[in-house]
Amino acid sequence: MNEFEQSLFTILYYIPAGKLTTYGRLSKAAGYPNHSRHVGKILARLPKDTKLPWFRVVNSQGQISLTGEAFLRQKTLLENEGISVSAEGKIQQFRTLLVE
Fold this sequence. Notes:
It is a single chain. This protein is mainly alpha-helical. The chain has five helices and two strands. A two-stranded parallel ribbon has the order 1-2. The termini are far apart. The model has no long low-confidence stretch (mean pLDDT 95).
């Protein structure tokens, strides 16, 4: 695991339940601004049974970026934490849920 991945996973681990971050904020917090696409690729490689809260990461518009089964899984996990998500994947009250 490289330094970027280790930093991402550490920050991700500490995002509290019911809160969100974006791919861009996560990459910036890890010390790699402008690497948000890499964040998505790294998270996509996580094992299905990971304990990391990958589902708390959404795009900068406050929407789920995934499709199909992965979309439904993320939506369900967010709703289980009390986060309202529209049928299209838009996070309700997105700005108030962001981790600073």
